Amino acid sequence: MSRLRTALAGLIVCFAVGAPAAVGLPAGAATAVSAAATAGSATGFTLYDNTAYTSAPAGVGHGAVRSNLVPNYTCTPLVAGGALPGEAQWEAIVSAANVDPSAPLVLDCESLYLNGTAANAADHLARLSQLQSWARKVAAPGQTIGWYGLLGNTSAAYRPLYQQLIQQDGPAAFFPSAYTFSANETTWSTTLTGNLATAAAIATGVPVYPYIWPQYHQGSSPDSLSLGFVPAAQWSYQLATLHDLGLGGAVVWGGSNTTVCDPACQAAAAGQGWLAQTRAFLDWTGSGADRRTDLARGATATASSVNVAGREAPMTVDGDPTTRWGSQYSDAQWLSLDLGAVRSLTGARLVWETAYGTAYSLQGSTDGSTWTTLHSTTTGAGGVELIGPLTGSARYVRLLGSARGTSYGYSLWSLNLYGG
């Protein structure tokens, strides 16, 4: 306890009056989200692998980087009752967990979140600060260190305390939870972008690497979803959104806690759609295909119908993965883009909302009246669909839906076109 008293005595606690409130998407939040997202994204998207499913012993692979984590079940018992572990003990734990010093080092101590009374928050900050300082001693020079879940569990009044932790020593990053609590994609993306806005309010220029989990979290709505695997289409949407927001990466977690993945879950994990979708995503980003110029960005977009205000056709080409077009609830719906000039087309990417098309065609035209089919399918599965190679040239491109996969209409978060 003497170490803790020393840390508390030397701590500069800044409780700012009028500290930044929680930031939502309206009223300038897009700028804050962009500031948080673009930090660390200059070198592309890195997926860190923190999975331990027994049916996938090699992990995700396909270019994913094994992550370094001191888990909550290790840290929390060591700090129970106001305690701290010994320096040598903690440094040994961190050294054992830090298997790849080229990847970030994540510390997880969920009993030390910055909330509650001012005295409680100050005590927690002192202990987080000491643990981080000791971890820095055994981390690689220049290695990024951050705390899992602290971003989403810091009260607004205590954000200046979190800022001190970020600025304390060496490179830092935010590692918020982006776990799944329902089948509603908008609910998930709203929580994510709220965390990005909060990160930007605490410290600009600090990268954010959300944790994602291919299982629904306990307490999901409805509860029957809890601990089941997230469907492939929903998972692929999450990966696409994290990428398209400009983040530098994310961390996939799962399988290490047997209380949330029993032997039957472990055995089934590798056969679930999330793993194939993750590998396909990594193959796409690893090939550099995600960094091609999007010919559809900012194109003039029109549609056969809109089911509600705020879901107009231009939402699919505005570069914002959290906005979408939605049609009326009937077949034979279309979305049309004017690229402004005839362009050669080599590929496309569709990011469907839950309301997807099972049968549709992608058509091209040089004059807007005579159409040529570039691609067609009757087995669309929703989620993210990578289409190509395409052959043809067009100024106008039209997605024509002929059969829906649900009772809803057709809805796209993004339509991207690639070529020259």
Number of DSSP helices? 10
Rg result: 23 Å
Biggest β-sheet, characterized?
8 strands, antiparallel
Helical proportion? 25-40%
Strand-pairing-aware structural class: alpha/beta
> Could you tell me the strand content as a percent range?
15-25%
Shape annotation? elongated
Number of strands: 17
Show unreliable segments: 1-29, 38-42
Q: Separation of termini?
A: 65 Å
- The overall pLDDT average reads 91
Secondary-structure element order, as H and E?
HHEEEHHEHEHEHEEHEHHEEEEEEEE
Verbal overview:
With 420 residues, the protein is of the alpha/beta class. Helices cover 28% and strands 24% of the residues. It contains 10 helices and 17 strands. Strands 10, 11, 12, 13, 14, 15, 16 and 17 form an 8-stranded antiparallel sheet that branches. Strand 13 (357-365) and strand 14 form a beta hairpin. Helix 4 crosses helix 5 (118-138) and helix 8 (232-244) packs parallel to helix 10 (273-286). The longest helix has 21 residues, at 118-138. It is elongated. Residues 1-29 and 38-42 have low confidence and may be disordered.
Secondary structure elements and pairings:
Blueprint: H1 2-9, H2 29-38, E1 46-51, E2 65-66, E3 68-70, H3 72-78, H4 87-97, E4 105-107, H5 118-138, E5 145-147, H6 159-167, E6 180-182, H7 185-202, E7 211-212, E8 216-221, H8 232-244, E9 249-254, H9 263-269, H10 273-286, E10 300-303, E11 325-326, E12 333-352, E13 357-365, E14 372-377, E15 384-387, E16 393-404, E17 411-419
Parallel strand pairs: 1-2, 1-9, 3-4, 4-5, 6-8, 7-9
Antiparallel strand pairs: 10-12, 11-17, 12-15, 12-16, 12-17, 13-14, 13-16
